[in-house]
Amino acid sequence: MIKIVKRPEPSSLAALMAPIIAIGITLIGCALLFLLLGKDPFTSVKALFWDPLFDPQIASFSRPQLLVKAAPIILIALGLSVGFQAGIWNIGAEGQYITGAIAATAVGLAFWGSDSIWVFPIMGLAGVLGGVAYAMVPAILRVQFGANEILVSLMLVYVAINLLAAMVTGPMKNPLAFGFPETRSFRDFPAAYNTEILDNSGLHYGVIATLLIVAIAYIVQTRHLFGFQVRVMGLAPKAARLSGVIPERMVVICFAISGGLAGLAGFFEVTGPAGKLTTEFGSGYGFTAIIVAFLGRLNPLGIVLAGLVLALTIIGGEIAQLTLNIPAAAVLVIQGMVLFFLLAADLFVRYRIKLSSKVAA
Amino acid sequence: MDWGSLSIIGMLASLIAASTPILLAALGEAVVERAGVLNLGVEGMMIIGAVAGFSAAVTTGSPWLGFLAGMGGGMALAVVFAVLTQGFLTNHVATGLALTLFGLGLSAMVGQSYVGQKPPRMPDINFGALSELPFLGRVLFSHDLIVYLGILLTILIWVFFRYVRAGLILRAVGENHDAAHGLGYRVILTRVAAILFGGAMAGLGGAYLSLARVPQWTEGMTAGSGWIALAIVVFASWRPERVLVGAYLFGGITILQLNLQAAGMTLSPAYLSMTPYLVTIIVLVLITRSRLSRSSQAPASLGRIFYAPR
């Protein structure tokens, strides 16, 4: 007879092991899935997780991509993790990432041709503000009217995708693009271009900013009163209120942080790796970041590791799409599976499984 | 733009058909949430239903087997959700999100070889003289069986919540799972049954989308319908009769904006495509705002994890 017994204290060993076990089982799950779809399981899994790093032909191109893909995901996940700890669900980071990029692009296009060193930072500020402003919609609707922030922030993702389409086909369209729905490329505007700092490393200013923000997030979470208040609000909302935390203010702050970081990620992406806005700009980083936040145990250092792992799957997915004809969406299956197994493994953090020979009455 | 090309009768008729996928999914989710379970995976279950239904219908040539397969697909995903939330006591919000991502990905993989194919057509129902009625004939008697099934299910679920013992137990479980457990009701069994029903309904809604509404398979074709269904459940205060109203309202907005696009309104189509989502937000705000004065009508145990030391 199997019994689930609550632990007096959550197990920190189980909490540490859960992500590793989840990734391990996901690999097996992937292999089974590819087998079912009639693909060779070993080659498929290898293409997703091994080839991007170690295949002699592919790795030289794909290894620098690891930093390029991981940086925005980590940046967004860091912001989301704050709210998630407090039980505040911003699911719409994808939308805030897009509006951040739109705002930054608007500023960049307005200063087109300038060689001032201020162009780039002002665009960055616009990106942050674009993300914050968009995140304020679900935050304020929740605080003022009690509207569900999960649904509102998610609806706004679809609005942002359409707004992006409206921008690149309308006011922000490149007049020289022969009707293609895209903006001018920041590659042609050196003062606004987020260039690669070391050749073939994938290292750009966004990666450096991300590392800096990881450090700040770590200090705030472990050493600052705010990090403590966030955790108390998530674990015991009543205790938090008694200790002086104002829940409404917390909702607004958490949405501002996650929206701002998502907008910042959008800014670094549009000025660097993407180079311009197209209808395809929103590539799902905002959703991947949700998984990364959980997989990294809502801890900044964990998020860095989780971000690198999921960035690897995205790159692997792109390669597998070309070489094995596996659709790009396979990456979503992997992400979903990781989260399934992680959540399941989390049972053992708070509970023990007891096997007893006696059949319970 | 050409106002003359907008036909009220045509729009009302297509509104009813356009609402059906969302109506079915939202009815299912209303039952799930009344049992105290918040399944945010509706979008994932819908799209799996869409691809499962489409592939089965194309393979067998029968739309009806397609609908059955759609329900099966949605249910299969719901099983995953039930095992995780009821067996492994996982957080409902996170599990539902994982379900949606998983469903979107898996459907794209399975559906890869079905892009560009045409599903078998559903037979028309012969209403005889009824369909010749002016106005009403076109609006009410021009639809396929699934549309009427959606309306029938609305009534059945309304009766179920009100007059059927199992329905009352389900509501008790959703209001206070500890008390229901104390009275000897099987909380987990009830919830698993509700989750599976919700999965079948979302799958049916998805299959209607790919088999009748669109009708073809494209990646990510649900485009947020599942999330709109979730919003409608809140809008409807968890009542089936209001779910019907909500679904028709959103169907109406979708049809209106599509017709405006077709009639050549000068606004960019991207702005018109935003409207269903924006209206969802506005309605959500209005409804929660008016409800704040009264007591909240959400099932009291919604989304809470049930753990009974055994």
Describe it.
The complex is a heterodimer of chains A (361) and B (310). Chain A is an all-alpha fold. Helices cover 68% and strands 3% of the residues of chain A. Chain A has 15 helices and 2 strands. In chain A, strands 1-2 form a two-stranded antiparallel ribbon. In chain A, α4 runs antiparallel to α11. Chain A is globular and about 75 Å long. The mean pLDDT of chain A is 87. By secondary structure, chain B is mainly alpha-helical. Chain B contains 12 helices and no strands. The longest helix of chain B is centred in the first third of the chain and has 27 residues. Chain B is globular. The mean pLDDT of chain B is 85. The chains are: A mainly alpha (361), B mainly alpha (310). The interface between A and B is large, with 53 and 52 residues.
Output the number of helix runs of chain A: 15
Briefly note the structural class of the backbone of chain B. Answer: mainly alpha
Mean pLDDT across all residues of chain A, rounded?
87
- Summing up helix and strand content along with how strands pair, one would put the structural category of chain A as mainly alpha
Question: Unreliable stretches of chain A, pLDDT < 50, 5 or more residues?
Answer: none
User: What oligomerization state is this entry in?
Assistant: heterodimer
Task: Report, as a whole number of angstroms, the end-to-end distance of chain A.
Answer: 11 Å
> What is the C-alpha radius of gyration of chain B, as a whole number of Å?
20 Å
Q: How much strand content do the residues of chain B show?
A: under 5%
